[in-house]
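Private note to self, pasted from the team thread so I don't lose it. Backbone tokens:
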């Protein structure tokens, strides 16, 4: 049988593809070869009709064009990865096979192969992505949970990035409905590692997806690369709390480029964590106050299926292919007809890598996107985590307790200290806000 890597217009035919064991090995070798990104892979299969033929022809083709030689993935390396995938109780699914997510197959530069662990059947459901701040407020976390449950009840599955904050709360809220997490590294390298227990709980009804090889430790540019998959799996992406330099905004940009819907939850103009989402609304994203706002937009699209890729157009009518500047998300061979990979600014690498940092300055903790004190985890002092949960919008004490992962006694004690310091305001209904 001939290998296929069809365009979205040929998606229905492509979804009849079923690779043999030998073809799966050849696809994996080609994918893992040096500088063979998703676009190079597609071009080579279109030209040679199969991965095996492309592997045979590629070295000589590059030499004849005066280009440098490349390192092809060996049979032994590919067999080792396939064995590790099987031992990890995961599966390698090719684009075009029946179990490959249909919405993801419709985007530009979709992964030729994905490693999936868990309930593969969940990948056929219609998805909505919910992403947002790692350092979310208690209000943001509660909103993410409310949206996830409401969308689940309306028949949508939830996809997110297994990151701290909004992602984590979204996955927790969707466990019994089936939720999908997309990893930046290999399927055996979840990040952050403290979400390993959550990942294992997700596998009963949901699944975890990785594009990168087994054993791959995520690098900075792998996170925005992962973000294109999160948005690509979904009919629409919801941003819940995102500062202006948040990686969540890259997910929103990918959603636009993929011809998918973008939604944003409005936040207080006094909270820097809401600036990115508020900007999206000003730029035309659909304002969201509840799941019904999302369902009203997406439900009519379900019969037609996920929208196919449509390059984002600039005001002058030229196609937009760059998400950001400076650093490509993957490397492509310099062959005719292969478009450049999307790029991400080098200056933002630190935000994606989430390096270890000193304990935060509690006076600034609510106003930054990169403080490494995640919500709901026992890191930092109780006071630090309670401050992180607070924002300009009034929040109930129970929500503070859940967001900061502290006892109610700690909440009352800390709030008293903050009130004496003149840093909080109390409201009716046992709610408080940060001044």
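Design output:
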């Amino acid at each position: 049988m001939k290998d296929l890597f069809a365009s979205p217009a040929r998606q229905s035919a492509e979804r009849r593809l079923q690779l043999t064991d030998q073809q799966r090995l050849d696809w994996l070798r080609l994918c893992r070869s040096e500088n063979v990104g998703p676009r190079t892979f597609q071009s080579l299969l279109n030209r040679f009709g199969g991965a095996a033929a492309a592997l045979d022809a590629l070295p000589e083709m590059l030499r004849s064009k005066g280009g440098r030689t490349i390192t092809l993935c060996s049979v032994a390396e590919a067999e080792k990865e396939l064995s590790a995938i099987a031992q990890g109780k995961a599966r390698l699914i090719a684009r075009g096979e029946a179990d490959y997510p249909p919405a993801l197959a419709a985007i530009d530069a979709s992964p030729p192969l994905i490693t999936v662990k868990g309930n593969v059947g969940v990948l056929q459901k219609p998805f909505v992505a919910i992403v947002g701040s790692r350092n979310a407020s208690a209000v943001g976390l509660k909103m993410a949970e409310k949206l996830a449950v409401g969308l689940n009840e309306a028949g949508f599955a939830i996809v997110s990035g297994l990151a701290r904050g909004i992602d984590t709360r979204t996955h927790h809220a969707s466990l019994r409905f089936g939720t999908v997490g997309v990893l930046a590294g290999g399927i055996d390298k979840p990040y952050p590692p403290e979400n390993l227990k959550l990942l294992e709980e997700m596998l009963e009804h949901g699944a975890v997806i990785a594009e990168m090889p087994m054993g791959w430790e995520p690098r900075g540019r792998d996170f925005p690369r992962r973000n294109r998959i999160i948005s690509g799996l979904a009919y629409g992406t919801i941003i819940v709390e995102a500062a202006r330099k948040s990686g969540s905004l890259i997910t929103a940009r990918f959603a636009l480029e993929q011809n998918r819907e973008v939604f944003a939850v409005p936040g207080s103009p006094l909270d820097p964590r809401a600036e990115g989402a508020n900007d999206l609304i000003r730029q035309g994203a659909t304002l969201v106050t509840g799941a019904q706002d999302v369902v009203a937009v997406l439900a009519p699209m379900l019969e037609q299926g996920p929208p196919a890729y449509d390059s984002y157009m600039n005001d002058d009518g030229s196609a937009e292919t760059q998400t950001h500047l400076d650093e490509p998300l993957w490397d492509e061979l310099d062959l005719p007809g292969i478009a450049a990979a999307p790029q991400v600014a080098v200056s933002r690498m630190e935000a994606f890598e989430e390096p270890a940092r000193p304990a935060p300055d509690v006076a600034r903790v609510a106003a930054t996107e990169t403080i490494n004190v995640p919500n709901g985890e026992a890191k930092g002092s109780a006071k630090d985590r309670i401050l992180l949960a607070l924002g300009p919008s009034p929040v109930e004490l129970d929500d503070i307790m859940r967001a900061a992962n502290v006892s109610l006694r700690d909440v009352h004690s800390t709030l008293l200290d903050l009130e004496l310091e003149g840093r909080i305001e109390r409201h009716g209904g046992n709610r408080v806000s940060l001044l």
